[in-house]
Specification:
The chain is of the alpha/beta class. The chain is built from six helices and seven strands. It has a single domain, classed as Maf protein, CATH 3.90.950.10. Strands 1, 2, 3, 4, 5, 6 and 7 form a seven-stranded mixed beta sheet that branches.
């Protein structure tokens, strides 16, 4: 077991990010951000008009890290590095977020069918008053998907908490004809870039 000073805070609800951190032996404490409630979310994931996809994912990730830092201060928690991340799917320069309903999920997958798109994941590690950030971009090519397959997939629970309406680690893995980039980045946490940032913050990865 790692000593307490080698733990980090993970500002994410994503089970995929937890699994990926465990995969590289990083010990973490969850520091949850509010995504709904009377006061609204701690960080809005709305796209600003005219905002480029990379600017968007970098901005949202920095805002998540900053919000988590304020929670740490408000709760008087021990100071440790905070890791935040955000993933977005981009096709034709347009950002695809998490589908709100089945109809939106179907439309997203129909749009991705038979073509390539980009997956951007930005990671920030906030430590000692400084935030360091890296963004990883991968290209994913989908096979041409029959409409009945899309509808069957969207009848499962899998698409609805994922940018672009699919998860590479689940049933949608059968849709993917080619990947160029980082499989862990597509899942939500590029491990090469994450390890670099954690090392800079003094976290021993290996």
């Amino acid at each position: 077991m790692r000593p307490a000073d080698q733990k980090i805070y993970l500002a994410s609800k994503s089970p995929r990010r937890r699994e990926l951190l465990r995969q590289i032996g990083v010990d973490f404490i969850l520091l949850m951000l509010r995504d709904q409630g009377p006061r609204g979310p701690d960080v809005s994931e709305e796209v600003i008009d005219g905002e480029a996809p990379e600017d968007y994912v970098v901005r949202v990730t920095h805002e998540k890290a900053a919000a988590a830092w304020q929670i740490l201060l408000a709760r008087r928690l021990p100071h440790r590095p905070i890791l935040a991340a955000d993933t977005t799917v981009v096709v034709d320069g347009r950002i695809l977020g998490k589908p709100a309903d089945r109809g939106e999920a179907i439309a997203m997958l129909q749009n991705l069918s038979g073509r390539a798109h980009q997956v951007l994941t930005s990671v920030v590690v906030h430590h000692n008053g400084e935030a360091q950030q890296l963004t990883q971009t991968s290209t994913v090519t989908f096979a041409t998907l029959p409409d009945d397959m899309i509808r069957a997939y969207c009848a499962t629970s899998e698409p609805y908490d994922k940018a672009g309406g699919y998860g590479i680690q689940g049933l949608a893995s059968m849709f993917i004809a080619d990947i160029s980039g980082s499989q862990s980045g597509i899942m939500g946490l590029p491990l090469f870039e994450t390890a670099q940032l954690l090392k800079r913050a003094g976290i021993k990865v290996l």
